[in-house]
Amino acid sequence: MVLIVLLTSSYGSTLPLNVKVSSADIQLPASMSVAQHLRTVSDYWTTEKLLNAEAVWTTNRVSNETLKKIPDGDDLVVSIDGKLPLVKQTPSFSGRMTATTGRVFWSSPDNTRQYSCSASIVPSSSLDLIVTAAHCMYDYSFFINQNWIFIPGYKQGQAPHGIWLARRTMILTGWIQSKNYNYDVAFVALSTNLNNQHIEQVLGSQGIGFNYPRQEMTYSFGYPVNLQQGQVVQYCAAKTSRSTYTTNN
């Protein structure tokens, strides 16, 4: 297991001490404000494009010889509780998991294809953080930001809690350097909405933990494309076990 030490940045992210992170600011189009960019991107994402966005697959199992193992460390468990929303008109506690789980969407550089992944809001001091897979934020040679949006509570082409833009992405360097699935993790700091609200203020967040032992009961939320074409949030509940996709997991 990996030794976990709390590292608090301006984004409030919590990462293992021996894990390196590569980050990049999301650049807005020239002479365009966040509000203008949000309106432009919102116009791009028609209901048809949202419904037909392609899932990004990571189904190839990689041999232990191919992957670099994460160094072992002490079994220090880190857990950060989720938060309730601060804005009154937001979902009740019973609906928080649905509201804090959503889909990330982006397009190819030529805007001819659309893609999607799952993501979740997690606690941070900036109140703006989501976690997703690194392969949803970094292609083979560049950070993904073309028409990038996050839709919390997404359902069948609808955005019940609005559309949110990214302002900075943070990806584990192990993924960028070697596409090592042990490091297939990314954090994204979002911009505030048009009312200058932070997403965690509006919707709350899910808890996040690191270094838990295997055989722990776990609930996982997301939009698997093999169930209802990825149009409705799903969950599974089971005990964790060693992954067949990665080493030392």
From TrEMBL:
What are the protein's UniProt keywords? Signal
Q: Is Signal given among the entry's keywords?
A: yes
Cross-referenced InterPro entries: Glutamyl_endopeptidase (IPR050966), Peptidase_S1_PA (IPR009003), Peptidase_S1_PA_chymotrypsin (IPR043504)
What sections of the sequence does the record tag as coiled-coil?
none
What the entry lists under PANTHER family is as follows: SERINE PROTEASE (PTHR15462)
User: What protein does this entry describe?
Assistant: Serine protease
Q: What is the scientific name of the source organism?
A: Didymodactylos carnosus
Q: What does the record give as the organism's lineage?
A: Eukaryota, Metazoa, Spiralia, Gnathifera, Rotifera
